[in-house]
Design goal:
With 158 residues, the chain is mostly helical. The radius of gyration is 20 Å and the shape is globular. The chain has one domain. It contains six helices and no strands.
Length: 158
């Protein structure tokens, strides 16, 4: 059992690192959009995706893009870098079975639960259900490792 939980914690580390990589790539993309016509880019993207730009969601996306200034884009890029740093630090801590990282993973996973439940109540989507189950699994795993150490760390317990 010890090996399986340790392997599962490392899987969570990989998941967190993956989230960090995705946000890092998005942040780099946002940073490269500084000094560009974002609204034109958004319209072109909608056309590439064959979406009707007068539709509800594409028009919201285009209106949002029109409000993005260079300062806001730079702020988004900095926030993406900060989020990425946190995810990479968490992943490193989980990979090396650090207790602080296990606590951090449990708490950070729990933070999203109310939002995911709210989104499911407002309008059911499989994505929110999947995210909810993943977060519950991560929280359960972290709590098991934290409160039942004989199952967790390779040097501890039975």
């Amino acid at each position: 059992m010890r090996f399986r939980l340790s392997t599962s914690v490392r899987a969570v580390a990989v998941l967190e690192a993956g989230k960090g990589v995705l946000v890092l790539l998005a942040g780099i993309g946002v940073f490269h959009m500084v000094h560009h016509d974002i609204q034109h880019f958004a319209q072109h993207l909608m056309e590439l995706l064959h979406l009707d730009i007068s539709g509800k969601y594409p028009s919201i996306f285009i209106a949002f893009a029109a409000k993005l200034t260079d300062a806001r884009l730079a702020t988004l890029a900095v926030l993406a870098a900060a989020y990425t740093s946190v995810r990479f630090i968490e992943a490193f801590g989980l990979w090396h079975e650090k207790r602080w990282a296990e606590w951090f993973a449990a708490v950070s996973g729990a933070i999203y639960i109310p939002f995911e439940i709210y989104e499911m109540v407002v309008g059911f989507q499989w994505l929110y259900l999947g995210a909810l189950f993943v977060n519950i699994a991560v929280i359960g795993l972290m709590l098991a490792v934290l409160f039942y150490p004989r199952f967790g760390k390779s040097g501890a317990g039975a």
